[in-house]
């Protein structure tokens, strides 16, 4: 798991989504029509319109649940579409609560300026603590320090800054801006203004000390938190402490904190187990990772793709490849929807361990079953083969990477693999393959490979050198290539001169 993402998860409330999985009852609901539309490029509005056109009921409560679920899954564009559709169709009269939700979504999707315009157009009676708070959050997400602080002052004047949520936003602002030293000051201001800090307030403050490697400061906040009668200690707070203890190399304290995580988490809270597994993996304790995984499977009964991803990532981190293979088999028989991010953990693990043959075999098996893969995974396997000097196998995998890239670009609606905006192959791998191919391959092979490469990488001196060498070896003309080099402003260097000398010999 990405360390930055992991850190953010620890200090936030337990809102990780339960990833989409197969609807085993096959009951068609509005949610089951919208949920699979994972790509932001696919609008959910046609599904909403179609649902109504078929004479089916649209319940306000169900739409609210859909928006809430989409927000949890970070599908903000779709959540905004549902909210705006509700308003446009007059499904319900928007209260300050609905306006606040839409404000938040506008800020996330279109930026704080659009959210500000929406807020300014609201009726006075809808400008409540909820909508003011939502706009503050938009400013914070946009990292607008001056606007956030001036808006906070306005909220104070109106008596709208009486909740922990408002101050938590400002603490998040300072955290996002890298001004962690200001976070404890906000906590103190809360207490001076008779605003009780909540669990999240204390976690943000603990995190601010941890980021500055001030373990003693973090421990003071944790101790204060434990002494507050209005605060119910939760696993998130102990997980924050454990994470920073691990970073500081304080193994005994980290182990104690992890035991507190386990004591305080709800026994059916898969998110808590996921974090516990990841932390034990960071601590290097494979036995505890396996023990907690067994506990999670016993307690939660149903495990989603995210659970498998966390477990596979943890086992790969620990180098426990055989155990990871067993977990992948469990996932394959789970009935969950296909998500390439699950097997990609093991593919990456194979590549890192030099088990490129296994990685390639797994990728090929997925493709034979009609499952999607990613160019990046094929590229990693190619890099592994290259490092081992197996050029032909590296070339084969890199060609597969380009083929998959073309398929993804041509089919942006694919939902079983998250489509990144762009894929950039490893330049060192590409250049090594070009050098090898220009010495051993035919002109047709070199030109075909270059044709793929230049779809994602601008023409470079290395690419032109490969083409020149191949054409000279094949006894073909090179004047057109030299002209193209000039057109692309690619200057000749000493290597270019040496290559051209081959033609004279």
What can be said about this structure in brief?
By secondary structure, the protein is mostly helical. The chain has 28 helices and no strands. Among the domains are: 338-423, no CATH class; 426-505.
Could you list some keywords that capture this structure?
505 residues, mainly alpha, globular, disordered N terminus, Pentatricopeptide repeat-containing protein, mitochondrion, repeat, PPR_rpt
Describe the protein's architecture and organization.
This protein has helices spanning 3-11, 30-34, 45-53, 60-72, 76-89, 96-110, 112-120, 129-141, 145-157, 164-176, 183-192, 199-211, 215-226, 235-247, 251-264, 270-283, 286-300, 305-318, 321-332, 341-352, 356-368, 375-387, 391-410, 427-440, 443-453, 461-473, 479-487, 494-504. The protein is mainly α and 505 residues long. Among the domains are: 338-423, no CATH class; 426-505. 38% of the residues are buried. Residues 1-24 and 412-420 have low confidence and may be disordered.
Approximate strand percentage: under 5%
Unreliable parts = 1-24, 412-420
Principal-axis shape equals: globular
Terminal CA distance = 55 Å
Q: On the 0-100 scale, what is the average pLDDT?
A: 89
Question: Describe the biggest sheet?
Answer: none
Structural topology:
Layout: H1 3-11, H2 30-34, H3 45-53, H4 60-72, H5 76-89, H6 96-110, H7 112-120, H8 129-141, H9 145-157, H10 164-176, H11 183-192, H12 199-211, H13 215-226, H14 235-247, H15 251-264, H16 270-283, H17 286-300, H18 305-318, H19 321-332, H20 341-352, H21 356-368, H22 375-387, H23 391-410, H24 427-440, H25 443-453, H26 461-473, H27 479-487, H28 494-504
Helix pairs in contact: 4-5, 5-6, 6-7, 6-8, 7-8, 8-9, 8-10, 9-10, 10-11, 10-12, 12-13, 12-14, 13-14, 14-15, 14-16, 15-16, 16-17, 16-18, 18-19, 18-20, 19-20, 20-21, 20-22, 21-22, 22-23, 24-25, 24-26, 25-26, 26-28
């Amino acid at each position: 798991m990405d360390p930055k993402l992991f850190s953010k998860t620890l200090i936030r409330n337990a809102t990780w989504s339960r990833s989409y999985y197969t609807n085993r009852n096959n009951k068609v609901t509005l949610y089951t029509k919208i949920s699979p539309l994972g790509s932001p490029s696919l609008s959910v509005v046609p599904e909403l319109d179609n649902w109504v056109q078929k004479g089916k009921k649209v319940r306000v409560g169900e739409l609210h649940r859909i928006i809430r679920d989409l927000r949890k899954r970070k599908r903000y564009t779709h959540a905004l579409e549902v909210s705006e559709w509700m308003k446009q169709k007059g499904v319900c009269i928007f209260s300050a609560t609905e306006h606040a939700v839409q404000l938040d979504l506008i800020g996330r999707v279109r930026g704080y300026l659009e959210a500000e315009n929406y807020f300014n157009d609201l009726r006075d009676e809808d400008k409540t603590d909820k909508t003011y708070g939502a706009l503050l959050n938009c400013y914070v997400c946009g990292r607008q320090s001056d606007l956030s602080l001036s808006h906070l002052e306005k909220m104070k004047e109106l008596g709208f800054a009486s909740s922990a949520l408002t101050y938590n936003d400002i603490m998040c602002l300072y955290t996002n801006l890298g001004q962690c030293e200001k976070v404890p000051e906000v906590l103190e201001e809360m207490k001076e203004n008779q605003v009780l800090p909540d669990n999240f307030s204390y976690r943000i403050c603990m995190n601010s000390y941890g980021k500055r490697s001030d373990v003693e400061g973090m421990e003071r906040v944790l101790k204060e938190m434990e002494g507050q009668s209005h605060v119910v200690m939760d696993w998130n707070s102990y997980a924050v402490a454990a994470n920073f203890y691990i970073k500081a190399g304080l193994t005994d304290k980290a182990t104690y904190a992890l035991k507190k995580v386990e004591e305080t988490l709800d026994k059916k809270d898969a998110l808590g187990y996921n974090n516990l597994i990841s932390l034990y993996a960071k601590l290097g304790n494979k036995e505890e990772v396996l023990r907690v995984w067994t506990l999670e499977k016993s307690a939660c009964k149903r495990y989603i793709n995210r659970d498998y991803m966390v477990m596979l990532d943890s086992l790969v981190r620990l180098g426990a490849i055989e155990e990871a293979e067993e977990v992948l088999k469990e996932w394959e028989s789970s009935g969950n929807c296909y998500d390439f991010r699950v097997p990609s953990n093991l593919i990456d693990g194979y590549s890192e361990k030099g088990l490129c043959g296994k990685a390639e075999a797994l990728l090929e098996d997925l493709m034979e079953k009609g499952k999607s893969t990613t160019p990046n995974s094929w590229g990693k396997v190619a890099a592994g083969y290259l490092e081992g000097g197996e050029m032909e196998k590296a070339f084969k995998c890199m060609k597969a990477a380009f083929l998959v890239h073309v398929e993804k670009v041509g089919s942006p609606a694919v939902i079983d693999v998250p489509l990144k905006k762009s894929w950039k192959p490893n330049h060192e791998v590409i250049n090594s393959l070009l050098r090898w191919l220009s010495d051993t391959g035919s002109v047709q092979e070199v030109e075909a490979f270059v044709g793929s490469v230049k779809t994602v990488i601008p023409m470079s001196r290395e690419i032109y050198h490969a083409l020149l060498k191949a054409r000279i070896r094949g006894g073909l003309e090179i004047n057109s290539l030299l002209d193209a080099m000039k057109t692309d402003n690619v200057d000749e260097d000493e290597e270019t001169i040496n290559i051209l000398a081959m033609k004279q010999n």
